[in-house]
Write a structure and sequence with these properties.
Layout: E1 5-7, E2 10-16, E3 22-29, E4 36-39, E5 41-42, E6 47-53, E7 59-68, E8 73-76, E9 84-85, E10 92-96, E11 115-123, E12 128-136, E13 146-152, H1 154-160, H2 163-172, E14 180-184, H3 189-192, H4 197-214, E15 217-227, H5 229-240, E16 247-251, H6 270-282, E17 292-297, H7 302-315, E18 320-325, H8 331-336, H9 338-350
Parallel strand pairs: 13-14, 13-15, 15-16, 16-17, 17-18
Antiparallel strand pairs: 1-2, 2-6, 3-4, 3-7, 5-6, 7-8, 7-10, 9-10, 11-12, 12-14
């Protein structure tokens, strides 16, 4: 049998190779380290197979590395598995266990998707422009004063996690009020999203003031949102510029700690992140806490540092909630947590 054979406690991957075309086959996944592995073994029937235990999750994304006899390698989706998930680095194959259910809102479309326009916001501090999509919910216009959601990796959120679709459906259902969303594209995310003082300064004094004209805000109702490094950057912005944001929705934040996240130590800004998070973890009280909702996958390495960040923020007086969803570090996991967690968070802040 070709393709994944899913059982309640694991999955077996198979790849037919009757002509002996491949010299090696390896699984690529984001559940356990090493990410490249485990290796497939060639069976007597000419197929390559590998079995792994089920992670603490209801779905799993993966690719397959083919080792050719000339020494070259090729990373592909599983040709015998039609289930795919899109992402900024291409598609991945997907295993879903029977317990997995996509959110109900993904089965429908809003009658009005809202309106959007694109701008490029110049920053002298960063010596760059930030590509930004300004989205306005159905039933409102771009000039209306509304609550504002500012989103790191915003265009990717809209494309791969269907963020604006989820927001439009929630607005039409009356669950959240009409809003603007400022979808910020990254410049060099490894540099700017990694607790960068320059980036926080640029957002505070250059980008957010312009956004307040392009997406007029009503009252103090600006929420920052991001995933992975984008979540870390939103927390850093809030902690270094107290009046910048009125709430935070943070998914799978990269809240690295020197002691417990050494597997990330080769990341270019690892020490800068751990210095910032060290200050966050060590703080006893914080003068300006804001409401925070956090989500993280149960199969993520980041789960431990998300739990630690949650505990530290709660001890400092934040109204903070951590929601754990049965997935890993990917765009579909973040999509699946938008409703109810983002929608209920915005409803509580804005309604």
């Amino acid at each position: 049998m070709a393709g994944p054979d899913v059982s309640s406690d694991g999955v077996t991957f198979s790849l037919p190779d009757p002509d002996g075309t491949f010299d090696a086959v390896r699984l690529h996944q984001e559940i356990v380290r090493p990410r490249a592995g485990p290796e497939f073994e060639r069976s007597s029937d000419g197929a390559w197979r590998v079995s792994i235990a089920r992670p603490y999750a209801d779905r799993m994304e993966y690719k397959v590395e083919l080792g050719h006899r000339d020494g070259s390698t090729e990373l592909i989706c599983d040709p015998h598995n039609p289930k795919r998930a899109a992402g900024p680095f291409g598609e991945k194959s997907v295993v879903e266990w029977p317990e997995y259910r996509p959110p109900k809102w993904t089965q429908g479309l809003p009658s009005d998707p809202g309106s959007a326009f694109e701008v490029h916001l110049a920053s002298r501090v960063l010596r760059a422009e930030i590509r930004t999509i300004i989205w306005t919910a159905p039933g409102a216009t771009a000039s209306d004063r509304l609550p504002v959601l500012v989103v790191h990796d915003g265009p990717e959120y809209a494309e791969y996690s269907e963020l604006t679709r989820a927001l439009a459906i929630a607005v039409e259902a009356g669950r959240v009020p009409p809003m603007h969303a400022a979808l910020l594209a990254p410049i060099d995310r490894d540099q700017t999203y990694s607790a960068s003082a320059a980036y926080a300064r640029a957002l505070t004094y250059e980008i957010l003031p312009v956004l307040s004209e392009l997406a007029p805000v009503r009252g103090r109702r600006v929420v920052g949102m991001g995933a992975s490094l984008g979540a870390l950057a939103m927390l850093h912005l809030h902690r270094t510029n107290l009046d910048s944001l009125d709430g935070l929705f943070l998914q799978s934040g990269s809240y690295f700690r020197q002691r417990f996240d050494r597997q990330e130590s080769r990341f270019v800004r690892f020490r800068r992140i751990t210095r910032f998070m060290g200050r966050v973890y060590a703080e006893q009280n914080f003068a300006h806490p804001v409401p925070i909702a956090m989500t993280c996958g149960t199969a993520e390495e980041n789960l431990h540092n998300n739990r630690a960040a949650y505990s530290a923020l709660r001890a400092q007086g934040y109204d903070v909630r951590l929601h754990e969803n049965r997935d890993a570090h990917n765009w579909v996991a973040w999509r699946d947590a938008l409703d109810p967690f983002l929608i209920e968070f915005l409803e509580g802040l804005w309604s």
